[in-house]
Amino acid sequence: MKDEPAKDDANVLSADDVARLSKLAYARQFPARAVIVTEGEETDALYVILEGRAKAYVSDAAGKEAVLSIMGPGEYFGELSIDERPRSASVMTLEPARLLVIPNEKFRAFLAEDPEFTLHFIRKLMHRIRELTKLVGSLTLLDAYGRVARLLLESAVEENGVQVVPGRLTQADVASRVGCSREMVSRIFKELTRGGYIVVDGEHRITIVKRPPDKW
């Protein structure tokens, strides 16, 4: 598994966890923009990202998307498949990616045999529920600027003494994650750049120079 700054350790499996799960799984390579699972499909496996990044999202009949999360190495999805109900979101790779695929029946048997891991896994699920609660609150209570600022701050990791948002995060990505138009995000980015709060390079890599104000 490639080293990469973790957005949030509570969402990332340890190397030991990945090694244990790999004994139940097989690895698959996916190209960029491959839809790995589709919202509403029958569930059959848990996936762990070894290399690359993917996005979890929901969409409507008109093709409008809302991105729920961007995931990287050590993160997993499909955990809700253990209840054998249809998938609640789609997942697409953002770049070439290598994943572990763990069939449901093997994962359920593993949980039954290893209560320590099961408790650890439940804690991770609870953390995700809290994150989704925060997302709903953000969409409901914050204006567009507040949602963009919160996304940047919560996505950033420390790198060489500065706060950097890992990977490429385009304005279109931000718009789909915070529920507003790309044009609105563009205006907010211009104001944040003009105010000296962020720097965006040609690779869409965002550095937070100083904390953006709570309100604009």
Automatic annotation (TrEMBL):
GO molecular function (one): DNA-binding transcription factor activity
Pfam families in the cross-refs: cNMP_binding (PF00027), HTH_Crp_2 (PF13545)
Domain (HTH crp-type) ranges: 142-212
Keyword rRNA processing attributed: no
Domain of life where this protein originates: Bacteria
Keywords assigned: DNA-binding, Receptor, Transcription, Transcription regulation
Residue ranges crossing the lipid bilayer per the database entry: none
Domain Cyclic nucleotide-binding: 13-128
InterPro entries xrefs: cNMP-bd_dom, cNMP-bd_dom_sf, Env_Response_Regulators, HTH_CRP, RmlC-like_jellyroll, WH-like_DNA-bd_sf, WH_DNA-bd_sf
GO cellular component terms attached to this protein's record: cytosol
Classification via CDD domains: CAP_ED, HTH_CRP
Protein name as annotated: Cyclic AMP receptor-like protein
Organism from which the protein derives: Usitatibacter palustris
Organism lineage: Bacteria, Pseudomonadati, Pseudomonadota, Betaproteobacteria, Nitrosomonadales
